[in-house]
Inverse folding.
């Protein structure tokens, strides 16, 4: 081995950290197939059987299937609106120089300083005034506003790495501003777009406070994060059912991460190379 023993501590720390990450997932997975007695009696042992009883109970008790569909509709709709707004905004700011563009970019950055709960009461009043209270539509329109600062700042940094000659060549071919954005900047910013999609997906999917207040606990409208805590009261704190329901809510997250992880890794590697 080229580096000899100097790499041994680093390898040990890396594998130790990986074990710390895997252990909670193992506990969650095995608990989903156990009863309360088995969970507390032998928390880290393998389950006696792989019966789907806990999963069926979770789906039926909290109507998780409907909640997952509601969360998917809200999340996908919010992601689409976020990209439709963030891409043109980032494109304009990345191509514009001067104090005005810098000031607008700083305004977007100030969005990071606004606490989530600080806008709860004004948002509640806005939902009531627009007649969209207790609807998923309001969440689809509201969540992109919370994601714009991060999305625009990330996309600006990627678009600024695109050579100006690419746009000039497209202009010589007669491309309009919209065509330049669509055919030049967007394809070359796919790693940045994937990063924005993944980060915002995790935020939108796991959002609880505003979903609980705006959409409410209606079984036909509530999202999965609002439905999941009801398992505790409906099942008398059956932790096997609770962990089974939690696993079901993690499946979409794992699927989206699997699809977008390569693009996000490209973004991280390209960023490291350019530093």
């Amino acid at each position: 081995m080229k580096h000899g023993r100097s790499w041994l501590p680093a390898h040990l720390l890396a594998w130790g950290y990986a074990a710390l990450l895997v252990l909670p997932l193992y506990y969650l997975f095995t608990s989903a197939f156990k009863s309360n007695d088995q969970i507390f009696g032998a928390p880290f042992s393998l389950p006696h059987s792989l019966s789907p009883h806990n999963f069926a109970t979770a789906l039926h008790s909290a109507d998780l299937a409907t909640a997952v569909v509601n969360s998917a509709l809200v999340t996908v709709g919010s992601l689409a609106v976020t990209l439709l707004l963030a891409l043109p905004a980032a494109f304009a700011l990345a191509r514009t120089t001067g104090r005005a563009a810098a000031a607008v970019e700083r305004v977007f950055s100030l969005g990071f300083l606004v606490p989530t709960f600080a806008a709860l009461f004004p948002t509640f009043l806005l939902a009531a005034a627009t007649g969209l209270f207790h609807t998923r539509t309001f969440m689809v329109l509201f969540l992109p506003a919370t994601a714009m600062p991060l999305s625009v700042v990330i996309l600006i940094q990627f678009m600024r790495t695109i050579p100006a000659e690419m746009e000039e060549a497209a202009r010589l071919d007669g491309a309009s501003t919209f065509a330049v954005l669509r055919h030049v900047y967007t394809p070359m910013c796919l790693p940045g777009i994937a990063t924005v999609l993944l980060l915002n997906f995790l935020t939108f999917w796991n959002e609880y406070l505003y979903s609980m207040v705006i959409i409410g606990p209606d079984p036909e409208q509530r999202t999965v994060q609002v439905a999941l805590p009801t398992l505790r009261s409906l099942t008398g704190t059956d932790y096997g059912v609770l962990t089974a329901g939690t696993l079901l809510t993690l499946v979409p997250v794992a699927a989206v991460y699997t699809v977008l992880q390569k693009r996000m890794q490209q973004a991280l590697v390209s960023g490291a190379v350019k530093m």
